[in-house]
User: Fold this.
Amino acid sequence: MIALFKPWITKHCLEDLEIIFEKGCLTEGEYSDRFEEKISEYIGNKNTSLTNSGTSALHLAGILSGIEKGDEVITTAMTCMATNEPFYNMGAKLVFADVDITTGNICPKSIKSKITDKTKAIVVVHWAGQPAEIDEINNIAKEFNLKVIEDAAHALGSSYKGKRIGSHSDFVCFSFQAIKHLTCGDGGALACKSEKDAERARKIRWFGLDRKYKGKSRWDQDIVESGYKYHMNNINAAIGLRNMGYIDTIIGDHMKNRNHYDEYIVNPKITKMRKPDDTVSSSWIYSILTEDRETLKSYLADNEIASDRVHVRNDQYSVFGGKDESLKNLNEFDSKLLNIPVGWWVSEEALNHITSCMNSY
Assistant:
């Protein structure tokens, strides 16, 4: 079976882990500092803080956005539940906007129609790594004095108008969970537009204390804002730091395989996603739409090719209130969505086999 996901982990990380275990420095420290610097350089934003998960990064972004109980957050239902649960757990009302049927990304026009005097923030997911219409969304946010939070869990290495995802909006959240482009086993990062927000985030992620406090003792500090245990430890950071050495190759292989599908999958039963010229997708997954998804999925399985929806619309979960049937594009996208293997592990032989099967379906 050609896998839909496969984690990339270099064996060289074992060298660092041995040193860490020998020294006993398991928590935040040398390796997390170096990894934080490396990620900041990669995305082009010095105001970046490592976290223990992408979900923690989203929660921090919610806190920094001033989201409180009773506020409304306009978001997309077409995502992992981890995108929306942090804001729901803060007491916010989730207001689901429709998606662009050609990309799966949140629709700016739908966002604008959902804004009320209770709206506090807009949450954007870059579906499959394809950047959303960031400028248009940020212009809407500016007009109504709202914060923009990007969930870039799919989009490490993606670019929008010549600049890597990571500094376009108020907050950008990344995930280094097991099957992402870059894995630490688990982990995440929060990139902030402002240095002030980044400084606050670094305190909140460690109980409200500054771990780099320059006084006589870090315990002399006052805690003025209660925080959480959201920092990344040296173990996860060491894995991520080593894997960063291969990130261009990893993402490059995803892109190469995507380009192959874009060119050679030609089947009227299959609709490929639109990729605007001013964007570059890092193609974490390769999404297609098809009328009879289960038949295609079964056909691919018979040919030893894994496929799946990967994420389902969040409003199908009763905790979020049930399906909003007025979201016409989301209804269609969710009912037709299927993802096929596109990652670095897909060999040329496997790539040709998948393409052939997709065309003969």
About this structure: Residues 247-264 form the longest helix (18 residues). The mean pLDDT is 97.
